[in-house]
Each structure stands twice: as structure tokens, then as C-alpha cells.
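task queued by scheduler; priority normal; single chain, no ligands, no partner chains; default sampling; output format set to C-alpha cells
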Amino acid sequence: MDDYNRRVNDAEDTGKSKLQQRVMGLDVGSKTIGIAVSDPLGITAQGLPTIRRKNKRTDLRALEQLIHTYKIGEIVVGYPLRMSGAEGTQSAKMAEFAEELRKRFGLPVHLWDERLTSAEANRVLRDSEMSIRRRGEVVDQLAAVLILQNWMEARR
């Protein structure tokens, strides 16, 4: 049985619509939050407009709105490890942020190694015919897509 049919059957068996539980991927920086959401089947990731960070309350309110709009069931947060794999200051900040999301929204929140994600996003955008200005606007979004897509592929 293929993945789609298994999910449809599982949803029918439990009476719940697992097809509507999407996953949100976040690339959290000091100035922006790149955002991606999965399709209802959890196969592909699509980017959403980047949030310009203002303060914690405003940032969380914006995320809350997206969680409700897209029927998010899980969140994946990019976890910035050093190239050696060691944790650093930014890793600790993301672990705290993930814990705050868990408490605030009551959803499973996963940390996912994001090493080289921004570099890969920049490389993809550089190879495109997009203007430098436009690349700067979408790099965080693409990084979030890559984080979420990699997490979903590893999960399968």
C-alpha cells in the first residue's frame, strides 16, 4: 500500500483527519523567522512569507495565527549546531524557543540540525535568475523549506 493510501486509511480508521494535520518548519533568526508548511499529506514543504521580528509577543501571535490557519499539528525548528556538531549559544536559544512554543501551543516541537541550510538556500538562489534584493527577501523562507523538507524525508 502506498503512503497516500495508508494515511487515508489510517485517518478513516481513527475517525480523525490526519490529512489536515500539517507540519510547520521555522528558520529562526534574530531579525526574521522563515516559515514553511507541509502539504496535508506531509510530503512537500511550501514557503510562506517571512515574519519580520518585533518582539516575543508579536512574533508568537503571528505564529499562532499561522498555526490555526494551516491546522498545524507539529513544528520543526532549525537547530543551529556548529560544524563539529557541538551545541553553541544559538543552539541554546533555539532550544529555549522550542520549549516556549511547546508550552504556548501544546504541540510537539522538534529541533532539526540546520547546518548548511542557509548556505544551500543562498546557493540555490544565486543559481536562479532572481535579483539580489529579492534573494535577500526569500532566503529565510527557502531555509525553512529545506529544514522542513529534510525533516519530513528523514521521518519517512
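post-processing summary
- Residues 132-155 form the longest helix (24 residues).
- The chain has one domain: 17-155.
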